[in-house]
Specification:
Length: 328
């Protein structure tokens, strides 16, 4: 764990905000009380209310991001803030600040790169809107079966990150798909993720969620499917191909049986459709195989880069350059 000159890890609290004047000052004050030495940043995104004034008078460092969307803000946070431990939290006072020490502990001990404050782990009493709970359950099933993990809360906004993860996660999503994206990319890059239970509270009167259920729900689903295609191409295109082959085989077998029985070929249309489906299926399987090979090579490159970065951050620059030169 890299540390500051004083010997303690440098902690940054990151609060993405869009129109959170009702609650932001309270969140800043709570984290100031829990972590007196931390830098507390409010990343404002064109709020039209008094979010910035309230955050400023509560003592937060203000950063402004022009491009609208939580994902763009998270990208800016990861790019601009330099720390050893990063805490991300909503500005809506729905997550418990006093849980932060428990959430930070695995990262501080170097045992995890991401701790997710899970609102759905057993024993939690989170107050969810019904549709949000349903969406969360659906995405969790999907994520766990595709990527072979056992996470309970893919979308939590309360997270702790190690410096290694913040520096090593190329995020591109601009909106509320950012949590799904960072979770899947962290899994794929071999970062250690753990969950710790937190109870989600309700927003106070006058404060409104920024999630648009249908639009953002679709964005999150399409992000999971896109990353499934990108990171597990053999399963994705292989399953698609096998389904097409199976679909084409059934009418195909029937056409052949009819032909054998009557000796006359008079079912050209089903024969053509069946041939087309089987051929497309075979092509899809091959596409999966090719992309799988490419994907593995990129994974190796990723690992190599991680090793390289770790060496550099440990000041073994000469070692890192020497190693890469020897490999060429
Ligand atoms: N900077 C910025 N923050 C946003 C944006 N959209 C949402 N947020 C913040 O991200 C956090 C999570 O959003 P929220 O509406 O609470 O989502 P929910 O917790 O799923 O209901 C809150 O602090 C929001 O103010 C945005 O476009 N820009
Ligand atoms: Mg929230």
């Amino acid at each position: 764990m890299p540390v500051s000159e004083t010997g303690a890890p440098r902690v940054a609290v990151l609060i993405p905000c869009y129109n959170e004047e009702v609650t932001v000052a309270g969140v800043v004050a709570q984290f100031r009380a829990e972590l007196p030495a931390a830098d507390i940043y409010v990343f404002d995104n064109n709020s039209q209310d008094r979010t910035v004034e309230r955050a400023q008078s509560a003592g937060a460092i203000i950063r402004r991001v022009q491009r609208q969307g939580k994902g763009y803000v998270v990208q800016a946070m990861f790019r601009e803030v330099d720390a050893d431990i990063y805490i991300m939290i909503d500005g809506d006072a729905t997550y418990p600040a006093d849980a932060v020490h428990r959430l930070m502990a695995p990262v501080e001990r170097g045992e995890a790169d991401m701790v997710i404050g899970s609102r759905l782990l057993e024993g939690t009493a989170s107050r969810f809107r019904l549709l949000n709970r349903f969406g969360n359950l659906l995405y969790r099933r999907l994520l766990n079966s595709i990527f072979g993990v056992r996470l309970t809360d893919l979308l939590s906004g309360y997270r702790v990150f190690s410096r290694r993860l913040v520096r090593g996660l190329p995020l591109v999503g601009g909106g509320f798909e950012t949590e799904a994206e960072m979770t899947i990319k962290a899994i794929e890059r071999g970062f250690v993720i753990v969950e710790s239970p937190v109870d989600l509270g309700e927003r106070p009167a006058g404060s409104h969620s920024k999630i648009r259920i249908l639009q953002d729900g679709w964005l999150i689903l399409s992000t999971i499917i896109t990353l499934f295609r990108d990171y597990r191409p053999l399963t994705f295109f292989g399953a698609l191909g096998l389904a097409l082959i199976a679909l084409g085989t059934i009418p195909g077998a029937w056409v052949i049986r009819e032909y054998v029985k009557s000796g006359v070929m008079d079912h050209w249309l089903p024969a053509l459709l069946s041939g087309g489906a089987v051929l497309t299926g075979v092509i899809s399987v091959f596409v999966g195989v090719i992309l799988h090979t490419i994907c593995r090579r990129f994974q190796e490159l990723d690992r190599q880069l991680q090793i390289f970065e770790e060496m550099i951050s440990r000041n073994n620059i000469r070692d890192a350059i020497g190693n890469s030169a020897r490999r060429q």
